[in-house]
Amino acid sequence: MEPQQIREGYLVKKGTLLNSWRAVWVVLSEDGLDYYKKKTDRSPNGMIPLKGATLISPCQDFNKRTLVFKITAEKKQDHFFQASHMEERELWVKDIKRTISCLKDGKRFARKSTRRSIRLPDTVNLAELYALMKDQDDGVKELKLEQDNRVFNHCFTGATVVEWLVSREKARNRPEALMLATGLLNEGFLQPADEMSKEGAEGGEQTSFLDQTKALYYFADSGFFCEGYSSDEDVLLKDEFRGNIIKQGCLLKQGHRRKNWKVRKFILRDDPAYMHYCDPSKGDDPLGAVHLRGAVVTAVEYVPDAKKYDIDGNLFEIITSDEIHYFLQAATAEERKDWIKAIQAVSKNGK
Predict the structure, then answer these.
(1) How far lies 85's CA from each of 62, 121, 189, 301, in Å?
(2) What's the predicted TM-score (pTM) here?
(3) Which of 6, 298, 299, 329 is deepest in the core (most CB within 10 A)?
(4) What is the mean pLDDT of residues 55-70?
């Protein structure tokens, strides 16, 4: 019986011999993880057996890389993977851990029920807690806060987080809430926004999260931006980064000049309506942006020069108001449908 395929998609992988990182197509099955240079390759570039393996997430071995997890095979070889956003990492980690557990117990992979209980279990699930904190009606409110001649958008104070945890009975008291908030910070769900919170996070104390009204934080996948000069780069942050993040993930993009296809991480924002893209192996510095106000997006079955690069299926096209054409490929038909729907909404309602 062929092993069941559990999950597939783009991840960024660190080379086993070199320190280079590159986007690869990853397929998780019941007995291991295969990765390919391209989605269309017939033979994998490498295979990681998961029997007897261990997984660490988040992996903080790389100071300038977030959303990394580490798989250590039974023969003690380490493999490092980086996701493009928080939810993607959590999905991969959850399925890989379950696969490892099933192999250990001699069972077949089966997904657990996705029904959620209102109360968190005794062993706190930080991913679920994070989802509750982001609830638009009952979660932590994202605000525009001014401090030290700078305006921080889509953020909140450390004291607000602690008070929310206590008021929603996720913690019995402020010290317990502080420990939970520190866990969320250490796992990468919350990010420090200002100098005070950054110093706290880097201080090496047991509780690196600060229960203070002047310490500012933001959700890792929010539309956070700062108006003013950045302490790191000393440049003004661009207006186009202001919007809330609506969707993000990896897609194949056709180049405008050479017509070659490369994996790019896309971040879709609204108000203003932009979709930035970057090389997922090199961080989040944008290589370019698509202004979506008034743009048209549609599924297509044919793209010029696509066959030359063995690209076929799940294709779609964005035509901007300036008549610039962008050709993209999603991993699956469902993903293409989701991207088209999200881009259509932003192009219609965003500024």
Answers:
(1) 16, 25, 10, 28
(2) 0.67
(3) 329
(4) 86
